[in-house]
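Quarterly update, task 2.4: fe (ii) ion-bound model.
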Amino acid sequence: MNAAQPLIFTFVTPPRLVVGWGAATDARLVAEARRLGRKPFLVCGKSLRAGGALTTILANLKDAGLKATTHEGVPPEPEVEDVQAAIVAAEASGCDSVIAIGGGSALDVAKAAAALAGKGHTAREYFDGAAPVPESGGLPILGVPTTAGTGSEATWVGVFVDRAGRRKASIRGGAMLPAVALLDAQLTVTCPPTVTANSGMDAFVQAVEAFTSSGANPLTDALAFEAARLTGQHLRTAYAEPENQPAREAMLLGSYLAGAALNTSRLGLVHGLAHPVGAVTGAAHGLLCGLLFPPVLRYNADVSGLRYAAIAREVGAHDGDLLTFVESLLRDLRIPTRLSEVGLKAEDLDYVAREALPSGSTKANPRPVTEADARAVAESVL
Ligand SMILES: [Fe+2]
């Protein structure tokens, strides 16, 4: 930010954060759930039951006298219809609170259901902008991430796909903000390597974009810089040594801090482009963030060079060059470098550029972006 400008910003973050290895499967999660209600609606993806954690968590809740209704199997890159299904199920359950456990997809669906259940609108009406997401009055949310990636447990944002309209867009509002976030890095140990790589790149990119966004302020800077340091330093180790506790803990805290920053700072052109490319190709969000990072670093270099260099020094880039560091990291994580490798075609570029422009992320990019600029950046890595 420019020191000569007046300092005006709003900062929003979950009021309570609980951090602890093993906390999700012992009495600590139950204690947090009890603070919010007696009939939780528990939303999760497929992996939670497969990994065995869901059975333990449900038994612990039952032992404490809580009547949980589970809503399992939220798919990756969820669609508007997945939100609608969760709203209907939450309303039918008679729940008084929501426990959201999973990657960004499960967390986003759970947060939307908590905010929108019982409000008399369909998920599509919110997605199309026909109804505003309420600022308050939703069910209280306990957010428990199982990947170090989106930081969704720290934000009031959810990203959803409209397959028919080939769109991917976010909805946001105060009622989607978790009341409590619980970070148990032990849950991330069973992540497959590709999920660790992709979601970890999402966290690192979010940290860097939040740190350099036009919406950044000194408070989000402090969070985003630490998020970039933690994720940039530890992603390689978390990927190569899945059971490395310090690396897993650093990644999960880093992704949370990036979420807490981007909630109000917003992001940048990587995210502006990743959403339409994801809508067209179905490729994983974190993979696209990694793939699109180098060309956006090049595009922003003149405006954000000093901030990129500050991060490069923290993450141990030998020559102080963030671009070189990122390119080497992407190679180690086996993330592709060309959009054609994930199925994007030259004839999709106009659409991608057009869809990237109205995105709040693109608008917050440190260097202004025209449609031609967005197209050129994507084309440079086709
Ligand atoms: Fe992201």
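Highlight for this quarter: Residues 285-314 form the longest helix (30 residues).
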